Amino acid sequence: MSDVIQQLVNPQAPGSWPGGDGGGGDWPRYPRLYEAIPASGPTSGGNTVLLTGSGLLGTSQVTFGGVPATIVAQDPSGNSVTVIAPAHAAGTVQVIATTPRGHSNAVSYTYTVTPPSGPTVTTLVPTSGPTTGGTAFAIIGTNLTGGTVTFNGVPALGVSINAMGTVLTGTTPPGPAGNVPVVVTTPAGSTTVAGGFTYLAPPPVAASLSPSSGSTAGGTAFVITGSNLGGALVTFNGVAATGVSVNPSGTALVGFTPAGALGNVPVVVTTPGGSAAVAGGYTYTAPPPPVAASLSPSSGSTAGGTAFVITGSNLGGALVTFNGVAATGVSVNPSGTALVGFTPPGPLGNVPVVVTTPSGSTIVAGGYTYV
């Protein structure tokens, strides 16, 4: 058998060829591979590999472990061939080129397993929704295949992903009011969605206010009924009510009115979910006039300085005069039912005692006798 026929039948091993390395003399130029650049790649293939050598002109096939590659370019001088590597199982395989002159020697190429890339997220729409959940959302990104999504650690519902792994859809679970983290997890890893998701509390509903009127002095106990009242603040003409408390179901709110001017004023309930005005508002009325039921003691020294107590009702904010001269150290208890102070100096005899509050005046029956 001639050397030419022998070369066509069997792949060539590295070494000198008849007539010189790579051909020469009277012998045809047989193909020779030197190296694959790069010498490794993913098991999925698809990457470009440059095969250097000699005598490669007219290469008709290149195989990686027996699997044909796609030839994309050849050097006119026969010194290289560029191919797209085919897919193959992990491991080292032999690469062989075939030309009209025969098969080349083999060079090694190693297939490696490339870990899948973790998910990336570019967009979440919408970025907010009610605390009750059920908001349809879409996450746009890459490598989302096999992904799950949590909102504040709670899995989203009805998750679906397109074939390219670039769009993930679902519906939000219920969550607490405020901003919460959103995490996408795939077999290759996890990523947190920038900006998260903001749960919006439903707006409050203020159905009724009772009573609908009270003293300008404030302190009137009131009840507002409705829904979604959790975390509420209440203002009367812009001034905050005091002692506000809401029941666990968020359907009733209690508190005390602040002081206000005569007339009707707006009442607004504000929660994290928004604000609601109470229909009809609240009407401030003049406080009832003071009532002075008793004065003790009813007599004392003309030098003054006698401690006294006046009992009655509606005494808040009161001033007291003895014969027109103001008493000193006047103080009223929170319920407005008792007033204490010290008498001023006065002339011998009985004098009038007058209690005056923002809502009027009253004369203490029997007056006071200076002795």
Task: Describe the protein in words.
This protein is an all-beta fold and 371 residues long. The chain has four domains: 110 residues, Sandwich (Immunoglobulin-like), CATH 2.60.40.10; 81 residues, Immunoglobulin-like; 81 residues, Sandwich (Immunoglobulin-like); 80 residues, Immunoglobulins (Immunoglobulin-like, Sandwich), CATH 2.60.40. 2% of the residues lie in helices and 51% in strands. It contains one helix and 43 strands. The strands form eleven sheets. Strands 2, 4, 5, 8, 9 and 10 form a six-stranded mixed β-sheet that branches. β41 and β42 form a beta hairpin. The radius of gyration is 47 Å and the shape is rod-shaped. It starts with a helix and ends with a strand. The N terminus is likely disordered.
